[in-house]
Write a structure and sequence with these properties.
The protein is of the alpha/beta class. It is built from 22 helices and 9 strands. The radius of gyration is 23 Å and the shape is globular. The protein starts with 20 loop residues before the first helix and ends with a helix.
């Protein structure tokens, strides 16, 4: 079929799994701390890699797989990277889930062995898959690492018990399972003990870490080389600019890419100074972070009612922290508040509004709580004058400060309550019209008017209709070919998972 024009020219490549090996190497950079995480993903033992949306979990998993066979034939470990972004896995459980999962793993292993004489017997149940992978390890003479990406979904917990039962069963002395999860949103089931059956490794990028500024400078150089040639107003330097943008978005790689893109899309002859950085942060708050809660909402399934209290919590924390000493950048929340409203806090972590830095810290008034760093894009909106000055820049970059405390009684969080979840609710995003996937700030991979028109003419009017279409069905449509299908799969993946 003829192709739609230049479908793959997307300025913002947000998902690591959408990169080929050469493009992945060109765009991605890793800090010494990231490399330690990669080493744990390659090493013996089951690992759960925990991080918020856009924190770089997929990139670390792919980087680990690229250190292993068959990517590196001489490696003593054979790696199998598999994204579990498959809609049937979200909508099934029990034996049906097991069969789909085992088929996906078998097909991926067969694909990796395509150019080798090694035989692998496809499996459709866990016992057969366990035996087949153990046999493969013996035949290869290599330990095997299974890297399961997108194992957890923020709006769906029912099938995760099935996944972690399989994860636990497949793990052995010669087979190491690894999986990515989101902070706080994972139901591990009844048989899986997270503290005994795996090691949880968190992706944490804090400005106090060695190499923090250097990492974000390297990422800026790889993705936005023109920024390094821009004039930087005194007393700023480009590494301080990169580090500050990375700090502002709580070390989140996707947020950092959006921040750099905001500057690049501005006047090319304008120097990068405090006013440019401040305007960039405010635009991200308005055009990316607050709309993100609306984008996340239809992915939450039974937790959709938790979005409004999440907004209330965010607004209360930002008001209080913004008013304190011109913007204190961390909050200490009493554990009773956390235990009363866990899901709204998890949603805010997932969306990058806050990032947990300490799980248990003493409050001055008594009791203990969790300390969260605050997204500076959102905090700047609530600082008096909403303006980034040189003093505020230096304060946020260098000063140590006490967090604003939120107590059980009398704080702005005390009166907020979380409603009950909607039991048996489906993912609302699947019932949204396919027009929702139009190319926009929310969906930079989005579909064009022409693509949406072609889908509607074929009767595929919802996101669910598109997600259930096979490649063969889409390929039969006029003006739809391999590149177009990849684009459609990418935007559905972002709509449902990212």
């Amino acid at each position: 079929m003829p192709q739609l024009d230049n479908l793959e020219s997307v300025n913002l490549i947000l998902a690591a799994e959408d990169c080929g090996p050469e493009e992945f190497a060109r765009l991605h950079r890793f800090s010494p701390n990231d490399q330690r995480v990669i080493n744990k993903l390659v090493a013996h033992g089951p690992v759960l890699l925990q991080g918020g949306r856009g924190s770089g979990k997929s990139a670390l998993m792919i980087a680990a797989s690229q250190q292993l066979a068959p990517f590196v034939p001489s490696a003593v470990v054979f790696g199998v990277y598999l994204s579990l972004r498959h809609l049937p896995l979200l909508r099934t459980s029990g034996k049906e889930y097991e069969e789909i999962f085992c088929t996906l793993v078998s097909n991926q292993i067969l694909s990796l062995l395509r150019d080798t004489p090694v035989q692998f017997e496809p499996a459709h149940d866990v016992a057969s898959l366990q035996y087949a992978i153990a046999s493969l390890s013996r035949d290869l003479g290599k330990r095997i690492v299974l890297l399961f990406d997108d194992a957890a979904h923020i709006g769906r917990e029912a099938s995760l018990g099935d996944f972690f039962d399989i994860f636990r069963t497949l793990s052995s002395s010669t087979v190491s399972c690894k999986a990515t999860i989101y902070p706080g949103v994972t139901n591990f089931g009844t048989r899986f003990d997270v503290y005994n059956d795996a090691t949880v490794v968190e992706i944490v990028r804090e400005e106090e870490q060695a190499g923090f500024d250097g990492l974000f400078t390297d990422v800026m150089s790889a993705r936005f080389p023109a920024m390094l040639g821009r004039e930087v107003a005194s007393p700023l330097k480009i590494d301080r600019v990169a580090g500050f943008l990375g700090q502002s978005v709580l070390g989140n790689m996707r947020g950092f890419i959006f921040a750099c893109n905001e500057i690049v899309e501005g006047p090319p002859d304008r120097s990068i100074g405090f006013s440019t950085l401040g305007e960039t942060l405010l635009r991200l708050a308005t055009n990316y972070y607050w709309p993100l809660l609306e984008e996340v909402s239809p992915k939450l399934g039974k937790y959709i009612p938790m979005v409004d209290p999440a907004k209330q919590i965010a607004e209360a924390i930002l008001r209080e922290c913004g008013a304190k000493n011109s913007g204190r950048r961390s909050a200490l929340v009493h554990r009773e508040i956390m235990s009363r409203m866990p899901k709204p806090f998890e949603i805010l972590e997932y969306a990058g509004f806050i990032a947990k830095r300490e799980s248990s810290r003493a409050l001055k008034s008594g009791g203990r709580g969790s300390r969260f760093a605050i997204n500076l894009c959102l905090l700047l909106e609530h600082v008096p004058g909403a303006r980034l000055t040189s003093d505020l820049f230096e304060k946020w970059r260098d000063e140590k400060e006490e967090p604003v405390e939120f107590h059980v009684r009398g704080s702005q969080l005390a009166g907020i309550s979380a409603p009950q979840p909607l039991e048996n609710a489906d993912l609302e995003i699947l019932n949204e019209p396919v027009d929702r996937l139009y190319k926009s700030r929310a969906y930079p991979y989005g579909l064009t008017d022409r693509m949406i028109g072609i889908l509607k003419a074929d009767g595929r009017v919802t996101v669910g209709d598109l997600s259930r279409a096979t490649d063969e069905e889409l390929d039969r449509l006029d003006y739809v070919g391999e590149a177009t299908i990849r684009r459609m799969r990418s935007v559905v993946g972002q709509a449902v998972w990212m």
